C-alpha cells in the first residue's frame, strides 16, 4: 500500500510543502504552515472512464430562472453586493477584528427577518446573550432572528435539516467552526476549508444565502487558506480605521455583479448608519489652505469621493536614515514618486523624513492619486499651500510625465458641485460642462513651477 505523504499548507497563501518549516517557502510568512488532513490515496490504476453517471449537456441559451435577489434592507450593503443577496450563494465577509462585521450582519439579518425572511444567525465567537446585548443596542432585539451559539458544523447542519431552510444563514466566524470528520483544531486550514465546504454545499442545495465571516491577517488577506476565496461566490471586505468613524464595504470578487461599487457606513452609537452621499466625507472642511495638503477626487465605482492627501516633510540635521511613513497609500508608490521628484525635478528628499497620510482613515488605491500626492509633497517641501479650492489628479510615469486617467470629467463635475474652483491634471482632458478652471500639466516640473512660483 502506498504510504500517505504528510502535507503542510500555509494559512496565509495556501502554498503546499511536504515538510514542516518555520517559514512558508512561498510567501515567506512565519509560523503559518499547518498539517493538512491526509488525502485519501487511491490506486493510479483505477479507471475513471466508466462507472460514473452520464449526464445530458444543455445549450448555453437554455431558458433559466431570472436571478431574484433579496434585499439586505441596507441599501449600501445591497449596492456593494451588486443588488442584494442571491439565493444559494456564499459570501465571505472579511475585515479586521472590531471593524464592525458582526454589527453589519446583525443589522442586515434583522432587516431580512423583519421583511419576512427566515434568518439563522450562528455565532461561534460570542454567547447568545452577548449577541442579544448588541441587538438591544442596535434596537433590533424584537426582530424574529433564530439565534444560536455553536461551533459544530455537524450540530448546525443537523439542526437546520430539521425544518425548512432559512433565506439567510450567517456564520460568525468560519475560523471558529469545526467538523468532527476532519482532523485538526478549529482555525486550521483543513478545518476551515472542510467546514466551509459543508456549509456552502448546504447553501447550494437549500437555496439559502450564506454569509461566512472571516478574520483577516495583518497584511489584509483573509486568514485561512486562499482556497476559501475560490470556494465562495462573493468575497467582501469591510474596511476602515478603527479609530475613525467611516467604514467601506467593498466586494473583491463577485460572481453575480461588478466589483467596483462600494457601500459606505458610519459607525455610531446605535450601530452602522448608511452614508448615501459620501463625496464630502473624507475632507477636513477647513477654510484656510495649508501647506502639504492636496485634495484628490477619487472614484469608487461610479461615485466620486473627495479625499485629502496630507504630507509632512521634516528636515534632519544629523546623518541618520530618514523615515518614510505612509497611512492609507502604497509604500512602494511613495518611494517611486519621491525618486521621480528627485531625478526629474531636482528636489531633494534624501535628508528629510517624509510622512504621508490620507485623511479620515480612507485607503487610496486609485492610480490617479499620484499627482495629488506629488502636489502635497512639493507643497510641504516648499512650505507653501496649494492654490485655494483646487483638486489634483493624474498618474505619474517614471519619466515624470503626467498620464491621462479614467473618468476625468466625472471627477471634475463632482468637485465643481462641491465648490472647488480649480483643477490640475493631465493635459488632454475634456473638461465637459464643468465650471472649474482647469489647467493641464504635461510633466512633473510643471507642477513644481506652479507651487514654487
Ligand atoms: P463588531 O461588530 O463586534 O466587530 P467585528 O465583528 O468586526 O469584530 O464591532 C465592534 C466595534 O464596534 C466595537 O469596538 C464597538 C463598536 N460599536 C459601536 O461603535 N456602535 C455600536 O452600536 C456597536 C454595536 C458597536
Ligand atoms: Mg465579530
UniProtKB/TrEMBL annotation:
The name this protein goes by in its record: DNA repair protein RadA
Entry-linked SMART domains: AAA
Presence of keyword Zinc-finger: yes
A GO biological process held by the record: recombinational repair
SUPFAM superfamilies: P-loop containing nucleoside triphosphate hydrolases, Ribosomal protein S5 domain 2-like
Highest taxon of source: Bacteria
Extent of motif RadA KNRFG motif: 253-257
GO cellular component: cytosol
Limits of the RecA family profile domain: 66-216
Gene Ontology molecular functions: ATP binding; ATP-dependent DNA damage sensor activity; damaged DNA binding; hydrolase activity; zinc ion binding
UniProt binding sites for ATP: 95-102
Gene3D superfamilies: 3.30.230.10, P-loop containing nucleotide triphosphate hydrolases (3.40.50.300)
Biological function: DNA-dependent ATPase involved in processing of recombination intermediates, plays a role in repairing DNA breaks. Stimulates the branch migration of RecA-mediated strand transfer reactions, allowing the 3' invading strand to extend heteroduplex DNA faster. Binds ssDNA in the presence of ADP but not other nucleotides, has ATPase activity that is stimulated by ssDNA and various branched DNA structures, but inhibited by SSB. Does not have RecA's homology-searching function. Plays a role in repairing double-strand DNA breaks, probably involving stabilizing or processing branched DNA or blocked replication forks.
Record-stated family: Belongs to the RecA family. RadA subfamily.
Region span, Lon-protease-like: 353-453
Pfam families found in the cross-reference section: AAA_25, Zn_ribbon_LapB
Free-text note regarding domains: The middle region has homology to RecA with ATPase motifs including the RadA KNRFG motif, while the C-terminus is homologous to Lon protease.
Amino acid at each position: 500500500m502506498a504510504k500517505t505523504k504528510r502535507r503542510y499548507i500555509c494559512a496565509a497563501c495556501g502554498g503546499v510543502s511536504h515538510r514542516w518549516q518555520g517559514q512558508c517557502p512561498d510567501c515567506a510568512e512565519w509560523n503559518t504552515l499547518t498539517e493538512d488532513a491526509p488525502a485519501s490515496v487511491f490506486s493510479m490504476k483505477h479507471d475513471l472512464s466508466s462507472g460514473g453517471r452520464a449526464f445530458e449537456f444543455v445549450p448555453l441559451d437554455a431558458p433559466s430562472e431570472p436571478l431574484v435577489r433579496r434585499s439586505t434592507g441596507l441599501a449600501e450593503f445591497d449596492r456593494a453586493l451588486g443588488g442584494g443577496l442571491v439565493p444559494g450563494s456564499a459570501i465571505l465577509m472579511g475585515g479586521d477584528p472590531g471593524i464592525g462585521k458582526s454589527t453589519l450582519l446583525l443589522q442586515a439579518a434583522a432587516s431580512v427577518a423583519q421583511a419576512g425572511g427566515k434568518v439563522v444567525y450562528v455565532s461561534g465567537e460570542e454567547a447568545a446573550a452577548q449577541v442579544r446585548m448588541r441587538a438591544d443596542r442596535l434596537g433590533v432585539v424584537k426582530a424574529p432572528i433564530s439565534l444560536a451559539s455553536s461551533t459544530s458544523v455537524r450540530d448546525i447542519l443537523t439542526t437546520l435539516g430539521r425544518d425548512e431552510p432559512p433565506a439567510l444563514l450567517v456564520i460568525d466566524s468560519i475560523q471558529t467552526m469545526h467538523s468532527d470528520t476532519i482532523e485538526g483544531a478549529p482555525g486550521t486550514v483543513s478545518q476551515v476549508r472542510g467546514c466551509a465546504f459543508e456549509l456552502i454545499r448546504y447553501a447550494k442545495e437549500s437555496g439559502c444565502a450564506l454569509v461566512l465571516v472571516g478574520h483577516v491577517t495583518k497584511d489584509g488577506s483573509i486568514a485561512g487558506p486562499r482556497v476559501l476565496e475560490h470556494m465562495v461566490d462573493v468575497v467582501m471586505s469591510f474596511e476602515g480605521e478603527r479609530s475613525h468613524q467611516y467604514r467601506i464595504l467593498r466586494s473583491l470578487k463577485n460572481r453575480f455583479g461588478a466589483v467596483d461599487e462600494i457601500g459606505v457606513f458610519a459607525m455610531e452609537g446605535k450601530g452602522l448608519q448608511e452614508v448615501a452621499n459620501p463625496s464630502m466625507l473624507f475632507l477636513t472642511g477647513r477654510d484656510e489652505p495649508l501647506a502639504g495638503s492636496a485634495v484628490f477626487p477619487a472614484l469608487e465605482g461610479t461615485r466620486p469621493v473627495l479625499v485629502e492627501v496630507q504630507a509632512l516633510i521634516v528636515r534632519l540635521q544629523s546623518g541618520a536614515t530618514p523615515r518614510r511613513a505612509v497611512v492609507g497609500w502604497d509604500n512602494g508608490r511613495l518611494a517611486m514618486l519621491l525618486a521621480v521628484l528627485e531625478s526629474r525635478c531636482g528636489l531633494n528628499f534624501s535628508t528629510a523624513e517624509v510622512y504621508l497620510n490620507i485623511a479620515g482613515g480612507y485607503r487610496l488605491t486609485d492610480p490617479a492619486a499620484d499627482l495629488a500626492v506629488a502636489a502635497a509633497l512639493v507643497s510641504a517641501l516648499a512650505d507653501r499651500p496649494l492654490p485655494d479650492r483646487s483638486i489634483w489628479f493624474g498618474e505619474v510615469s517614471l519619466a515624470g510625465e503626467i498620464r491621462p486617467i479614467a473618468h476625468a470629467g466625472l471627477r471634475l463635475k463632482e468637485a465643481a458641485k462641491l465648490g472647488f474652483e480649480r483643477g490640475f491634471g493631465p493635459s488632454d482632458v475634456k473638461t465637459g460642462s464643468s465650471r472649474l478652471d482647469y489647467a493641464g500639466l504635461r510633466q512633473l516640473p510643471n507642477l513644481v513651477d506652479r507651487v514654487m512660483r
